[in-house]
């Protein structure tokens, strides 16, 4: 590891070790700690995740959830040798102070691309689980056979106590800041630290 990467890791560790808080609170009302990841952290977590997948060659395609799942999906596809990557762009439009229970799909593969296929759904994090579960349900509805892989799983925030990702690199209660969250955001720490 080169000196700039080592320095980056040291800075990231110092920020998290100092107990940087997000201002957000868990369901129990406790403050949520923030962890700022380096690219090296992400590469290690992708390797951990891939090592937990029972049969990497058994998947017909990866379905990444935009935007957070795009980079992990590309890294996973390279590590597993899967060339077919599709995208699901989904959101839950919400008004002030309310959660919408119905997802809006901006983009999603056609049913015939999913029917009868083993699909690895990839996202960066499962917090409340609404987006991942909306994608999983839609893949099942199309006749696909989905399994879910995420870098981070926050079970304390999940709205699905009877469901969870099939493959997880790290179980955490922390607020995760990925390197791609920081790209192009001058003064990120000053605004969000």
Instruction: Sketch the topology as an H/E string, one letter per element.
Output: HEEHEHEEHEHEEEHH
Number of helices: 7
Task: Sum up the overall morphology in one term.
Answer: globular
Q: Gap between N and C termini, in Å? A: 27 Å
Low-confidence stretches: 1-19, 187-193
Helix proportion of residues, in percent?
A: 25-40%
| Strand segment tally | 9
Alpha-beta content class? alpha/beta
* Computed CA radius of gyration, to the nearest angstrom: 17 Å
Sheet with the most strands, sense and barrel status: 6 strands, mixed
Record the strand order, biggest sheet.
Answer: 5-4-3-6-7-8
- CATH architecture grouping: 3-Layer(aba) Sandwich
> What is the C-level CATH assignment?
Alpha Beta
Mean pLDDT over the residues? 84
What CATH calls the topology is: Rossmann fold
Number of domains: 1
The proportion of strand residues reads 25-35%
Describe the structure.
The protein is an alpha/beta fold and about 190 residues long. The chain has a single domain (about 5-180), classed as Rossmann fold, CATH 3.40.50. Helices cover about 35% and strands about 25% of the residues. The chain has seven helices and nine strands. It has helices spanning about 5-15, 40-50, 70-80, 110-115, 130-140, 180, 190; strands at about 20-25, 30-35, 60-65, 85-90, 105, 120-125, 145-155, 165-170, 175. The strands form two sheets. The protein has a six-stranded mixed sheet, sandwiched between helices. A three-stranded mixed sheet has the order 1-2-9. A hairpin with a 5-residue loop joins strand 1 and strand 2 (about 30-35). Helix 2 crosses helix 3. The protein is globular and about 45 Å long. Residues about 1-20 and about 185-193 have low confidence and may be disordered.
């Amino acid at each position: 590891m080169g000196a700039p990467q080592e320095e980056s890791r040291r800075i990231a560790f110092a920020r998290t070790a100092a107990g940087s808080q997000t201002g957000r609170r868990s369901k129990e009302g406790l403050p949520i700690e923030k962890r700022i990841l380096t690219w090296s952290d992400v590469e290690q977590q992708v390797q951990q995740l891939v090592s937990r997948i029972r049969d990497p060659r058994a998947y017909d395609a990866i379905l990444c959830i935009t935007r957070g799942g795009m980079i992990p999906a590309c890294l996973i596809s390279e590590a597993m040798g899967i060339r077919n990557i599709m995208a699901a762009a989904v959101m839950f439009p919400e008004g002030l102070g309310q959660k919408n229970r119905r997802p809006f799909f901006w983009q999603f593969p056609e049913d015939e691309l999913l029917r009868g296929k083993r699909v690895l759904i990839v996202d960066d994090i499962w917090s409340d689980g609404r987006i991942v579960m909306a994608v999983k349900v839609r893949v099942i509805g199309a006749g696909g056979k989905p399994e879910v892989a995420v870098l981070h799983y926050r079970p304390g925030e999940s709205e699905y106590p009877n469901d969870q990702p099939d493959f997880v690199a790290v179980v955490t209660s922390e607020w995760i800041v990925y390197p791609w969250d920081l790209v192009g955001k001058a003064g990120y720490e000053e605004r969000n630290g």
